[in-house]
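S1.2 Input.
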Amino acid sequence: MKKIVFLIIGFLMFVYQGTAQEGPYLSSGIGVICPEKGINTRTLNFPQAPIELLDAAGGKKVGFIIKKNSLNIMYQLDGNGFPYRVADKDLAEMTPLGYCLKIFQREGDFVKVLVNSTGRGYWISLKELGYLRFNSICWIDWMKTQKVIFAPMVDVGINLRVSADAESRKIALLKGPLYGIVLTGNTEGSWAEATVSRYSTNPCKSSGLTPKAIETQSGWLKVIDDGGMPNIWYFPRGCN
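S1.3 Output.
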């Protein structure tokens, strides 16, 4: 039994290598599907009952998706006798080794999934998920509840501003690995209020305790881009 547990953890850590850092990339999607009671660690958070895949929001059934075991979420299309494993890029690590399925679009009570796995994506019903006590959450609604340290994920940097307005005064440009971002929980549209610390060295690369901040500033950040993808992300298992 111990060997099986180690194999599962090892596999999930392998998946983590491809999904640890999300950002303003098309592969990141706009949020995830997660259990209503909260995201569990060391597992794939998805129903163990088949969920219908649809060709469009409210369209016709073309297959199904299901959590097969602790290692695999599988999907199968009608007319194809072979099930496929959901690609790593369609999973986001939300808690230590706790993964959720990404969503890429929402129309009414339907969300689009499996874009990275299939190239085109398919739709599932939020009502069907609700019967199984799962729902969808967009990145900003999830971010504002998290007491973690985020990092800027935009190559050109993110502006910290005095208010939730792209025309408001810029306080600082957050660029590179020397910044730690903690959200207060206040949001306005795509913006979130934050306290930002700047360090002399990358806090995730330094040995021992996190170095003392050189300076700390507060303001507003546009934490998701116009497409709904995250401009900031974090390390689910800490900085190691």
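S1.4 Remarks. Residues 2-20 have pLDDT under 50 and may be disordered.
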